[in-house]
Amino acid sequence: MENNSTITLNKSVTNETISDFNPMTDRKIVPLLLSMALPPMISMLIQSLYNIVDSIFVAQISQDALTAVSIAFPLQNLSLAFSVGLGVAVNANIAMNMGSGNMEKADYYAGQGVILTICHALIFVLLGTFGLRPFFSIFTNDPQVMNYAVQYGSIVITLTFGSLFHVLCEKIFQSNGNMVIPMFLQGFGAIINIILDPILIFGLFGMPKLGVSGAAIATIIGQFSAATLAVTLFIKKSPIKIHKRHLKPNLKLITDLYKIAIPSGMMICMPSILVSVMNRILASVSTAGIAFFGIYYKLQTFVNMPVTGMIQGMRPIVSYNYGADLHDRVVGTIKASLVFSAIILIGGTILFCAIPETLLSMFNASEELLGFGVSGLRILSLGFAFSFIGITMCGVFEALGKGMYSLSISITRQLIVIVVLSLIFVRFMGLNGIWITFPIAELIAAFISVILYKKIIKR
């Protein structure tokens, strides 16, 4: 292991690389936030549209196929948790060190991120090879659903390393204020995926009809395409430069990264755990309930992904100005982010309440599913209107290096309250009893977020 003392500070970098006018510290907050947030918001919107379109195509195969993909979702989200969790940690540490003028240490953090990404990729190769059937058997005994789930999962889980490297490069670009390249990368992969989905699923243009496997292959091709482009642009365009010395494992820096990556990854992993537990609860009530919950999760990305993109733009601003001791700009950025999040999420509530049947019909919903799904979407969407505080503050705490604060909020809003209350309410209210736990959880999480934020402000 390389001793951290060998990583020297280089304050002179500030004068060499940062002009007299530095947008991160000098530009007005709202224009800066919009310029940083709009590109990832657009890319996340494209990604959410892909998620929805992908499920629409899979639903044309059968409801069993849609159920299978819903069962595989937790493992896909686990992969996302690993990649984004580490990416957020690398992003925050690079931004803070750039803010304080220490470019050499920023380069080291990027190098350690590459090492850990390779390790994470190997974990998913093992999981995709040996762990799928035991995991899927928890949720279904139906041989057709199991067959579809294994077909899909064996491809998207085993070969997920393209996505891992794409996300790492994306977060490094975002750490130094470049939000356009990540937007382009995200859109590039998603568009390739959307184009290939119907071709490979239904066998268009002379291609073989691959069904669920075709959807998985389209996903992997899109991820690898984005990863290849991401690495190429990183080498050519990024101010962060990774040399051989930066790739030597450094226990201190790896520990620093995991202090943020583990809580952040666990926060992202909460939907995986939640969906797994909820699928188990729903299976005891209605198999169609599992399919509906899968549809809801695809639809809610259309609302939440743009907010996630906005938070991606917010994080480096908060981290950079925190590193530069410009606390007024940190607070101003947080306030502006809360306003923008509220507008988007309340708009989502209005949309879901206005046209739930139209939204469900896009997924070839059965009469049984429509019967409870219309009211289900309306109830679930109420949580959007309350979630802007919890979601935004999770991003703030990550940017400030307070990963455990983010984790506590995430566990509250995405696991403990929902699961405990669902087990109680389902006995008396059926499926609606499950759906109503979501807005309740968001209200409680908002309250906790305010308390933790006030604690930081006092310090």
TrEMBL record:
TM annotation in the entry: 29-53, 73-96, 108-130, 150-168, 180-205, 211-235, 256-275, 281-299, 338-359, 379-400, 407-428, 434-453
Main location: membrane
Keyword field: Antiport, Cell membrane, Ion transport, Membrane, Transmembrane, Transmembrane helix, Transport
Membrane topology classification: Multi-pass membrane protein
InterPro entries: MATE_fam, MATE_MdtK, MdtK-like
GO annotation terms (biological process): monoatomic ion transport
Cellular component aspect of the GO annotation: plasma membrane
Compartments reported by the entry: Cell membrane
GO molecular function: antiporter activity; xenobiotic transmembrane transporter activity
Similarity remark: Belongs to the multi antimicrobial extrusion (MATE) (TC 2.A.66.1) family.
NCBIfam families: matE
PANTHER family the record matches: FMN_FAD EXPORTER YEEO-RELATED, MULTIDRUG RESISTANCE PROTEIN NORM-RELATED
Role, per record: Multidrug efflux pump.
Name of this chain's protein: Probable multidrug resistance protein NorM
Species whose genome carries this gene: Peptacetobacter hominis
Lineage of source species: Bacteria, Bacillati, Bacillota, Clostridia, Peptostreptococcales
